[in-house]
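#dry-run=false #mode=assembly
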Amino acid sequence: MCGIFGYVGNDSRLATLISGLKSLEYRGYDSAGLAFFDNNEIILRKQKGKVENLEKIIDMNRTFNLGIAHTRWATHGAPSMQNAHPHLSENRSFCIVHNGIIENFEDLKSQYLEGVNFKSGTDSEVVAHLLEKFLTEMFLVRFKRFQVS
Ligand code: GLU
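#status=ok
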């Protein structure tokens, strides 16, 4: 079973996300990843295997204010760095982690996400792309209405 750990607050170190993931290791997993905000950009780091592998490729002292981390237990797509969470939307504005299974992800893909460039073989990635598509559209509609009235 996988795990999710998030942090929002005053400057913390990436070590916080790693220790959060370590506290979830007992649940079992095959890969681990994290994402955090830096200068309005989402930075992503992922590794197959143990949280220790992830720890080796990040600067544990790097500070951040908002971050999310995940240990994955693959259900759709092999255990790999590519398939590890988090997943980004195409314009990198939306970043998601997910536990569980999205039973209708193939339908969602073909109905709403034609032409989207998927980076993983997971079911979860559809959520990032759906958020980008629908929240962007919603914002544009509201903005248009706001301009008219
Ligand atoms: N179904 C998702 C995947 O295969 C999430 C698995 C999990 O709960 O870790 O990536």
